[in-house]
Design brief:
The longest helix is centred in the C-terminal third of the chain and has 21 residues, at 174-194. With 200 residues, the protein is of the alpha/beta class. It has helices at residues 5-9, 30-37, 100-104, 123-131, 151-158, 174-194; strands spanning 16-24, 43-48, 67-80, 83-89, 109-114, 136-141, 166-169. It has a 7-stranded mixed β-sheet with strand order 2-3-4-1-5-6-7, sandwiched between helices. α5 links the parallel β6 (136-141) and β7 (166-169). It starts with a helix and ends in a 6-residue tail after the last helix.
Length: 200
Amino acid sequence: MILGRSERGKPPVEPVTLKILVAGGFGVGKTTCVGAVSEIKPLRTEEVLTEAGRPVDDISGVENKTTTTVAMDFGRITLREDLVLYLFGTPGQDRFWFLWDELASGALGAVVLVDTRRLEDCFAAIDYFERRSIPFVIGVNCFDHAARYPAETIRGALDLDPDVPVVLCDARQRDSVKDVLVAVVRHAMAHAARQPATTT
């Protein structure tokens, strides 16, 4: 078989790989989010919630939740031929926060998922990324039967900087999650462009 000029002369594309965190409170939809968009079978470290955990895990508002992430979720999505995102979903409970520093190492940016019924659950994640100057976007997971609010109303309630994107999404829908991830990459690139150049 004789290859055409374009096939013969086109060098293989070596994609840029970027690390994105998916964070937020307990039961906000992080595992669902990673699973909805991943092109590989996602790695999950879920365990069944037990009676022993009830004193330390606040399940108010998510009473039907039966499992929880105890280390991380992992998935991958190719946004373009030359751009691949590796997704790391963080555990939501306070007792697993010691894992966050390891997961955050080398991350380009993050998604902080928000449930408007339990808005206060995302404050710790927002503080974490702000303190470490890791660019993040807010993904408002629009749960069924939850009240819907304009993005600017949510921005005000969370006291966000004006440049932090707020994106309404459905963590169950691939295209919706993909829109949030594109927003993270764009925001992180804009953030990097604003940083002063270092001299050697």
